[in-house]
Amino acid sequence: MENSKRKMCCFRQGEIIIVPRDLTNKNSRTTNYIKKGDGIIREGEASGHFHKLSGGTLYVNPRDENDMWLDNQLETIELTHDEHAPIKIPKGAWKVIIQREYSDEMNTYVRD
Predict the structure, then answer these.
(1) Distance between terminal CA atoms of the chain?
(2) Domain ranges in the chain?
(3) In angstroms, how far is CA 70 from the centroid of its own chain?
(4) Torsion angles phi and psi, residue 70, rounded to 5
(5) Torsion on CA atoms 32, 37, 40, 45, rounded to nearest 10
(6) Residue 56 and residue 46: Cα distance in Å, rounded?
C-alpha cells in the first residue's frame, strides 16, 4: 500500500516537475545517461537563479539536456530555488521533467 501511494506522488517547483521513475520498465534504461555533478537542474534564463538539488545523483541524456533523472539514496534531499520554497524529495529514482509551454505557432520550454 505504501508503495502505491509513492507512485502517485510528484513534486513541482516552477517549471520543474519530478515524478517517480520505474527502473524495472525496459523503456526506462539509463545506460546512456551521464552524471551531472553540480546538481543544477535548470538555470533561469530571465533571472539567473537556478533549481539545485542538495544531494542525490542527477543524470542527463547527452543527446538531450532536458532529459534527466535523479537517483536519491538518501532519506530526503532538497530542491532549492531563490524564488520558490524548498521541496523535500524522498529516497528513490525520479524522472525530472522540464515543463513545456505550447502555443499555436510553436512550443518552448517555460522560462523561469
Answers:
(1) 36
(2) 2-109
(3) 6
(4) -120, 130
(5) -80
(6) 27
pTM above 0.85, yes or no: no
Note whether 35 and 41 are within 8 A (CB): no
46's grid cell: 530571465
Q: What is the residue-level pLDDT of the chain in tens, covering all 112 positions?
A: 444 444 458 999 988 999 998 766 666 666 689 999 999 999 877 778 899 999 999 999 999 988 999 999 999 999 999 989 999 999 999 999 998 766 666 555 555 5
Between the CA of residue 100 and those of 69, 108, 111, what are the distances in Å?
17, 6, 9
Each residue of 77-107: b (16+ CB within 10 Å) or e?
bebbbeeeeebebeeebbbbbbeeeeeeeee
